[in-house]
Design a protein that fits this description.
The protein has 447 residues and is α/β, with parallel strands linked by helices. It has helices spanning 2-11, 22-29, 36-58, 63-85, 87-96, 98-104, 113-126, 133-145, 149-181, 187-207, 209-219, 225-229, 236-245, 336-352, 373-382, 396-400, 428-445, and strands at 309-311, 325-331, 357-363, 389-391, 408-412, 418-423. The protein has a six-stranded mixed β-sheet with strand order 1-4-3-2-5-6.
Amino acid sequence: MLLFAFLAGVVTIISPCVLPVLPILLSTSTSGGRSRPLGIVLGLAATFTVVTLAVTAAAQTLAVPTTWLRTGAIILLGIFGLTLLIPALGERVGRLLAPLTRIVGGHSRQGGFGAGLIVGAGLGLLWAPCVGPIMASVIGLTATAGITLPAIAITLAYSLGAALPMLTVAYGGRGLAARARKLGPRTNLVKQTFGALTVVACLALFLGADTMLQTFTLRNLPPEYSTVLQSFENTQPVQAQLDQFGQTTPGERQVAASIPEVATMLPVSTQPPTEVSTQVPTQVPTQVPTPVVALEDMGPAPELTGITQWWNSQPLTLADLHGKVVIIDFWTYACYNCVNTLPYVQALYNKYHDQGLEIVGVHTPELSFEYVPENVASAIQNQKINWPVAFDPKYETWNAYSNHYWPAFYFIDANGHIRYTHFGEGNYDYNEKVVQQLLSEAKAGSK
């Protein structure tokens, strides 16, 4: 499991989620001693590990203070960028911080490791990686079982895996900066460029533009990109380890592997079948067709529990929704896979809501700032979500469904039984057929 987590971390370097911190990583690595980049990436890994597990274990208690820490880190790193961009400001700040830089070895030709740790700690508060099933399982279990040694080890392994390619990037940028110094008068221009990139990155993080950048990047990449990104974590050996780590069985995941159309998929694969269209359906049918879809009965759906807040609706229970076809959508607003599925979820809601479909988005937070209700409310408005959203900060509904993924879709029939599940992106055409089938059954049963 440690090896799998480490490899999953390494893969994050090719995800859009690393883009916001790369300019800061590059600019902070070009000065100080040769060991500064090592300090930066180790500080990032350590802080991300501590903050992720501490916030998850404490749920809402630490949410706002952690948000303050994140804002403080953005401001301090932004000031660092300004010192590179404006040489006169850099000299003044350097004089003010001279005692501190001597302590951490900031001006030592061989030092800078301590200064790097401080910078890396700030980056660890800002980094929001595109986590897959491994980290999702760790976060979910930590929310209910508390911090454990295996959780610490796996999170740290993931963080160190991500830090390894970042270290390569940092030393690569340092090498380019060293060559630039040979340009003489143009050296300051290189430093100012790095400074400007850092300031822009900090502004983007402060304004939340990093999420929009990630979404824009992914939507302009090939459709298979996000699937390939986490394909390693969806292999059978990794899934077996996740089952063991979570002390669950594959059956508890309620995966409808027996359905003919998805029989070739891995148990939790996000890869859509080749016949699935990547276009958002737009035509509204005049009546619900009756497709031939084999859906098994997975038993009664667990009740929504531990919900602390609702948006777009009064508090709901499954009993309130009896007679409707319901999709329980586990999501979180900064999850790029979740953002990518939104147009398709919206299309289903628009097409079938008047015919008896209800969607309940269960927002189970992953990162520290997603525990703040005001942030969730803002995201719901910005992402134009108009179906009911339930806030599940203590992972009670998440665990009731034995869920491990963002996003995860549980299709519930009019009698309150789970009939189909899908994890991740893709499979949109088949998901629509499931909705049509369940609506047809509900209509037939009401006669």
